[in-house]
């Protein structure tokens, strides 16, 4: 079908015109509310107290979601919302990494509050169209598309039966449809999901950005926690936003020159230092592959091991050769870090798009590790093909990687077999059945449908079927709170164990990535040091998601003298850049202390939100033992020297002549106790009680003492 014929099938449900509010100091103070079930479209004002306490981005998402839902609202209830918001800094173009959006919803995987950050055009374009946030509620009967026309200031909600569902086709169709000419394609932002999101709980959202050099629509992903599943459950096929264009100072900031000065400084660092440091412009985050392998941190065979002899087959040199070089790969305008690498003209070998030549966005590090080493796949072409299909089918590559690795381990120890998987021999590294599993997930068929339920539910299903020892399944199922682990080995870093499992949404390293500080550089040796890091970094990193910033330019290039500063792990000069930029956008008095305070309010609100839904307690921060230490004899013996030494030095236990099973038991007791002690120290530092619940005193101190918040915690003091 050509674009005109597809468009002819549209059936307008509602058109709503609005009076445009231009941005002032980074804000419009307006929210666009759309109920796709009742076709109610309207704008809401942002109350001053919401702006003051929640700042923007994730903060706005959490506040709106709290108000829109009840404690027992389920992910697939019409009242569940998807909120997209960038933040006051989002959309400036004079500093790298300033176009992020945060998506918030009740997650089908965790049954709790999920947030996921993403690049691409939609968030900033929404702001330029007049809204700080988009609040989506209700459930449509048939597939709908929402068009936000930031030129003529109107919103359309229409049924759209003829467009594709899979993102790489749909995004192209809609960009073509809503751009009047080639030049306008850069003014269109599309959000979509894909067919696997319809049949699984691990659906994600693709946000487009237009690549004028390649003349291609490209995508970034809000991957974690199944928000794409909520999107498709609401029967939303896509969101489209169109603006007149991006220019100079659309955020109407207070001091543009101050931002430009910091931008020039940062760009100089990128020019002079990136090639010597992380090579983000050449290979993006995939530069981490060999570093992780060298430090025994690359997840391999469902996080059993941290390195593999075949890792060089999927290391950064391989990705550098696949990625098209010398192209500005920024997912937002003005980003000089340009890490959104892509493989052009890749020919698909399986599934519904077999034979087609496509562009594949990525793989980034976690995709290469998750879809590669963790499943024992050391064939880059398999990783590329799976990356492409996960994206277009609308499922998270990190999640899928952890799901399939769990399945493979279950298969390798007899919990699964061909009969149980419908004939798929899902052993480590076996490519054809792994690809078939993904296609099944997209079709909602066979064992693929079970895989798409995520690790927590698979673990339950397998145990209920009597297929494996529930305790063993608990140990090897790499999930916490219902979310799959992202792709770092945390066994040897106690702080990283906390960075994963003592999070609000589940194990995603965007709250705290402490492996290097803790394990490699030994900068945080005591419980108090670790607790301080597990306070500061999650709070600091939360802030990026409040204001619309990408975290990567913070520490993926560092000023030349960074190592000589007092606190190199914090990258003080870059923190100062952010303080300066935030002040220059908003005009608000601000310093690095306030930065942490702003985050702390929102972080604690999210913890209480979880509590309101029945989570957010100490037991919810339990981790699977695989994240903490060796579960199997094979694992122990593969690093026997290390573990024997630890037993002797740390516990006083003599491993000489003892069986592996005995040694595993003693080590486990020690490590689990350590984690519990860490939990105590972290809770104390965060102002929480021993059950992991913020104290009323602390909530008052940080200014997050709304009566409805106190009401939730008061019974747990
Ligand atoms: S650093 Fe990478 S992910 Fe971040 S904004 Fe730039 S291109 Fe996008």
Structural class: alpha+beta
**Count of separate DSSP helical elements:** 29
* Beta-strand proportion: 5-15%
Q: What do the pLDDT scores average to?
A: 96
The low-pLDDT segments are none
Terminal-residue CA separation = 62 Å
Trace the largest sheet across and list its strands. 1-9-8-13-10-11-12
Question: Globular, elongated, flat, extended or rod-shaped: what is the shape?
Answer: globular
Biggest sheet architecture: 7 strands, mixed
Would you mind describing this structure in some detail?
The chain has 717 residues and is an alpha+beta fold. It is 42% helix and 13% strand. The chain has 29 helices and 17 strands. A seven-stranded mixed beta sheet has the order 1-9-8-13-10-11-12, sandwiched between helices. A hairpin with a 2-residue loop joins β16 and β17. It is globular, with a radius of gyration of 24 Å. The model has no long low-confidence stretch (mean pLDDT 96). Bound molecules: iron/sulfur cluster. Iron/sulfur cluster (SF4) binds next to α22.
Secondary-structure map:
Blueprint: H1 3-8, E1 11-17, E2 30-35, E3 40-45, H2 48-54, H3 57-68, E4 82-85, E5 101-106, E6 113-118, H4 122-128, E7 133-137, E8 144-149, E9 154-159, H5 167-178, E10 188-192, H6 195-199, E11 205-211, E12 216-222, H7 227-233, E13 236-242, H8 256-273, H9 280-283, H10 288-294, H11 316-322, E14 342-347, E15 357-361, H12 365-371, H13 380-393, H14 397-412, H15 431-443, H16 446-451, H17 455-464, H18 470-476, E16 479-480, E17 483-484, H19 494-501, H20 515-520, H21 527-547, H22 552-555, H23 572-586, H24 592-612, H25 633-638, H26 640-651, H27 660-686, H28 696-702, H29 707-713
Bound molecules: iron/sulfur cluster.
Iron/sulfur cluster (SF4) binds at residues 96-97, 119, 330-332, 335, 337-340, 550, 552-553.
